[in-house]
Amino acid sequence: MFSVQLHPVTLSLLLPVGISFYTFQTLSYVIDVYRGKIKAERDFVAYAAFISFFPQLVAGPIERTDNLLPQIHSVKRFDCGLAMYGARQMLWGFFKKIAVADVVSVYVDRAYSGLRGCTPLDLCIAIFFFTIQIYCDFSGYSDIAIGVAKLFGINLTKNFSSPYFALSVREFWSRWHISLSTWFRDYVYIPLGGSRCSKIRGYCNLMATFLVSGLWHGANWTFVFWGGMHGAAQALERLTGQKDKSGKAAAKAIRWLIVFAFCNVAWVFFRAESFGDAIYIIKNAFGGIADINGYLHSNIGISRERALFSLAAVAIVWVYDFLSLKIDLIQYANQANRAKRAVVIVCEYALVAMIGLAVLYGAGSDQFVYFQF
Q: Assign residue 229 a region: left if phi > 0, alpha if psi is -120 to 50, beta otherwise?
């Protein structure tokens, strides 16, 4: 009797951008109230602000009630230091999104849309650059959202913490999309029994959590397999008793390389249109190592200038994340003395200049990847 013709406009109305993020945020509130961890919010305006706080509405961080609601209720006064921190974090987020993610996406999109014409070198570049793209795209959005919130006197949850320097898959997930990984831990993994049960049951709980996490990203076997890979890797780490920070420098370097390589391969299944495409990429990128000529030629057709710009931008992110393991660089910039402040300003102008160059080069997709989830 009643029917709705499904076309792009209709679908965008039925499935608003970022629906899963604020659904998860609402679910955490309802579950915490049910469990008695928090009291139900009686102020409808405050509750509405909590659910629809615009900086993190469409792609997180997924906020918990005990962090965001008290800040919404508190009296706000302009804090110059907090605003400066927020502005600098926004600049860094825009750099990661525009000068890195959008630029390297050109390589990725060309490779994944024409796999059969790619050389092994093209496929290796696409694998590595998507690893960089997904990180800079998503963490860039998080930095922008957290920075905007600070302008309003709100401190949102830190969502990324140099994840590609992790020494184990477990540590990777403690640094990657922190608000989502802790959400699945608290509302899926622990209710299933967590690790406070038999080892076999604990491994099953871990796998179930990551399979659900993969399915959350999309109704496609590639996403489920991606989640299963991470669950299986963590189960293997538990089985072998691996610790995150033990061992000498050489051992740590090897473990870092293994984890980073694993993440690169896993992201192939996340990005590929089908399971067959993912297998083709991995087989032809790494299975033809003896094909020296294939690793010396590229069919993607990117200019040398753009390639050098991409590598320089990626190197900046890499150095920033490495230094961030020890200190908060934005806080350091805020507290810099007069001499150091001049260096900070030069660096910030350099970031702005690179953002401008990226726009002139013409980037790839300007949409945030996680807007689709």
A: alpha
Contact 104, 240 (CB under 8 A): no
Q: Token pair for residue 112?
A: 């994944």
Closest to 266 (Cα-Cα) out of 298, 224, 218: 224
pLDDT tens per residue across span 138-181: 899 899 999 998 998 888 889 999 999 999 999 999 999 998 89
CA distance 363 to 156: 29
Long-range contacts of 36-43, Cβ-Cβ distance < 8 Å, separation of 24 or more: 37/66, 38/65, 38/66, 41/65, 41/69, 43/73
- The tokens for 79 are 């804090």
User: What's the pLDDT at 234?
Assistant: 92
Angle in degrees, 0-180, between the axes of helices 120-151 and 304-324, rounded to the nearest 10: 50
Q: Residue 46's pLDDT is what?
A: 86
Q: Which tens digit of pLDDT belongs to each residue from 187-208?
A: 888 888 878 887 888 889 999 9
All residues at 6 or more sequence positions from 327 whose CB lies less than 8 Å from its CB, including other chains: none
Question: What distance in Å separates the CA atoms of residue 126 and residue 111, rounded to the nearest whole number?
Answer: 6
CA 227 – CA 22 distance, rounded (Å): 22
**Per-residue pLDDT tens over the stretch 7-30:** 444 444 445 555 667 788 888 888
The answer to whether 217 is a known catalytic residue is: yes
Active-site entry in 7, 73, 177, 217:
217
pLDDT at 1 over 50: no
Tell which residue, 138, 106, 98, has the closest CA to residue 359. Answer: 98
Closest listed residue to residue 25, CA positions, set 74, 72, 68, 73: 68
**In the structure, what pLDDT confidence band is assigned to residue 2 with cuts at 50, 70 and 90?**
very low
What's at 299, amino acid-wise? N
Both tokens assigned to 80: 């110059």
62 — phi, psi (to 5°)? -80, 110
Task: Answer whether residue 71 shows pLDDT above 70.
Answer: yes
Any residues with CB less than 8 A from the CB of 9 and at least 6 apart, and which? none
| pLDDT of res. 293 | 53
Q: How far is CA 341 from CA 156, 192, 272, 324, 346, in A?
A: 26, 51, 44, 18, 9
Among the listed residues 75, 136, 74, the one whose alpha carbon sits nearest the alpha carbon of residue 100: 136
Which two three-digit tokens encode residue 349? 């102008």
